[in-house]
């Protein structure tokens, strides 16, 4: 069984201290949760990891098994005591507030630069403080009424919640509702705050290989943008207690503090809510991250708003 991973996301050497977070908000890592399900056989090659039947020695056979045994899925909250959530099923996605039509073409580097500029105006750092302890993550505005989507495990500990926009202003936020089953929570800030709602991608239009950006506050570094592609869709991953649920897999770098931030395409549309990463024992990000599909997140968020 994989051992507990201390300080997920911390660089090797002296403890990383974010220049933008108070001492009680510093990233503290996240607990490991069950092993990422990986099929032992199939199109990826023989189960022993060799190129074919010629190599059957004991050492080559054990190495890939050791790798798989050490790979776990962890939530990427920068807060202490974060709890991973699993995705719940849904039938029809909610209509995305302000969603723009999704094009069929690919994205260039210039597209991603423009997308990052548009998206950063609607992404916030989420900071929670209570009893001398704190948690931090990310979130994004979904409508012009001040509703912000984030992860449940970022705010599950309770306390005073503030969001920090691109301009550095701190805004007090109210918890509208949270759903541990999908790891989605909704906050609300006063409208007219200068934040720009992000459009949500149309259901079924995201494609494997499509360029994407992960936007948020990894390790408290607000306004961070990392690039990658959609590595897989409907990847069955157990993000917390309960059954495996489908997630968007990406190789865009995601680390503690990215929790609740958007995964966006080259048109600046949200395709998922960054939630977890896979990690090998003793390491941080290895280029395998997971996001809650936007249609699932939007459906849950609209339900929370309606009830809140």
Describe this structure in words.
- The protein is built from 4 helices and 14 strands.
- By secondary structure, it is of the alpha+beta class.
- It has a domain at 109-307: Thrombin, subunit H (Beta Barrel), CATH 2.40.10.120.
- The strands form 2 sheets. Strands 9-10-11-14-13-12 form a 6-stranded antiparallel β-barrel.
- The longest helix has 14 residues, at 294-307.
- The radius of gyration is 19 Å and the shape is globular.
- The relative contact order is 0.21.
Brief overview:
The protein has 308 residues and is of the alpha+beta class.
Task: Give the SSE map.
Elements: E1 32-35, H1 58-70, E2 71-75, H2 109-120, E3 123-130, E4 133-141, E5 147-151, H3 152-155, E6 160-164, E7 170-179, E8 184-188, E9 211-216, E10 224-237, E11 245-250, E12 262-265, E13 270-280, E14 289-293, H4 294-307
Antiparallel strand pairs: 1-2, 2-13, 3-4, 3-6, 4-5, 5-8, 6-7, 7-8, 9-10, 9-12, 10-11, 11-14, 12-13, 13-14
Distance N terminus to C terminus? 41 Å
Number of strands: 14
Radius of gyration: 19 Å
CATH architecture label of the domain at 109-307: Beta Barrel
User: Can you tell me the residue ranges where pLDDT is under 50 for at least 5 consecutive residues?
Assistant: 1-19, 26-69, 80-105
Mean pLDDT: 74
Beta content: 25-35%
Note the run of SSEs as H and E. Answer: EHEHEEEHEEEEEEEEEH
Major sheet, described briefly?
Answer: 6 strands, antiparallel, barrel
Structural class: alpha+beta
> Could you please say which CATH topology of the domain at 109-307 applies here?
Thrombin, subunit H
Strand order of the largest sheet: 9-10-11-14-13-12
């Amino acid at each position: 069984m994989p051992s507990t991973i201390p300080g997920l996301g911390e660089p090797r050497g002296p403890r990383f201290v974010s220049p933008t977070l108070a001492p009680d908000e510093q990233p503290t890592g996240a607990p490991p949760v069950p092993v990422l399900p990986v099929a032992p056989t199939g199109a990826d090659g023989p189960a022993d990891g060799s190129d074919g039947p010629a190599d059957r020695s004991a050492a080559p056979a054990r190495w890939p098994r050791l790798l798989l045994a050490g790979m776990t899925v962890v939530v990427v909250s920068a807060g202490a005591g974060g709890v991973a959530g699993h995705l719940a099923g849904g039938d029809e996605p909610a209509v995305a507030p302000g969603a723009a039509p999704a094009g069929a073409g690919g994205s260039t580097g210039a597209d991603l630069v423009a997308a990052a500029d548009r998206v950063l105006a609607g992404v916030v750092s989420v900071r929670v403080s209570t009893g001398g302890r704190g948690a931090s993550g990310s979130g994004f505005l979904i409508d012009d009424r001040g509703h912000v989507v984030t992860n449940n495990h970022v705010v599950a500990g309770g306390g005073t919640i503030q969001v920090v926009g691109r301009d550095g202003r701190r805004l007090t936020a109210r918890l509208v509702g949270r759903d541990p089953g999908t790891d989605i929570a909704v906050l609300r800030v006063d409208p007219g705050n200068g934040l720009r709602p992000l459009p949500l991608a149309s259901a079924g239009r995201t494609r494997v290989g499509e360029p994407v950006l992960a936007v948020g506050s990894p390790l408290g570094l607000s306004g961070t943008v990392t690039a990658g592609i959609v590595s897989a869709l409907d990847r069955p991953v157990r993000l917390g207690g309960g059954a495996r649920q489908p997630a968007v897999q990406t190789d865009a770098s995601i680390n503690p503090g990215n929790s609740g931030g958007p995964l966006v395409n080259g048109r600046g549309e949200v395709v998922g809510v960054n939630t977890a990463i896979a990690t090998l024992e003793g390491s941080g990000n290895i280029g395998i991250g997971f996001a809650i599909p936007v249609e699932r997140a939007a459906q849950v968020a609209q339900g929370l708003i309606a009830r809140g």
